[in-house]
């Protein structure tokens, strides 16, 4: 019979457990804001894809030289075309305004607007004097056009 044998330690001490919990909490505090931001940008990117139909329609109307339609008569307007889009409207000069839905689940984005403006070769907004010419480029997400979503939440292809 042995006298004075040592008992082997089994499990973790409370100090070790607290250190592990603290490390996990620090990692979570650093990572979670980025995850929220990535999630919001993904939802906005999905919503911006809804603008592609209007982009095609507006380009074809300007290129054809046909008469410019009235407000919300371009043929690409929509009510709730996707889960994250409340509505899409078009002004008489072709400015497309997409309103994000409450279903987006983020107060930084819900019921905010993203705009898409067709520009001529001089970089100015298209007008009736540009009929018969193609849209040279698009300005997406510019605050001057009415976008009120923070720039860092817009996809890189839609930052003014």
Can you walk me through this structure?
The protein has helices spanning 14-48, 52-64, and strands at residues 78-82, 85-90, 96-100, 113-119, 137-140. With 160 residues, it is an alpha+beta fold. It has one domain (41-158): Glycoprotein, Type 4 Pilin (2-Layer Sandwich). The chain has a five-stranded antiparallel β-sheet with strand order 1-2-3-4-5, covered by helices on one side. Strand 2 (85-90) and strand 3 (96-100) form a beta hairpin. The longest helix is centred in the N-terminal third of the chain and has 35 residues, at 14-48.
Structural topology:
Elements: H1 14-48, H2 52-64, E1 78-82, E2 85-90, E3 96-100, E4 113-119, E5 137-140
Antiparallel strand pairs: 1-2, 2-3, 3-4, 4-5
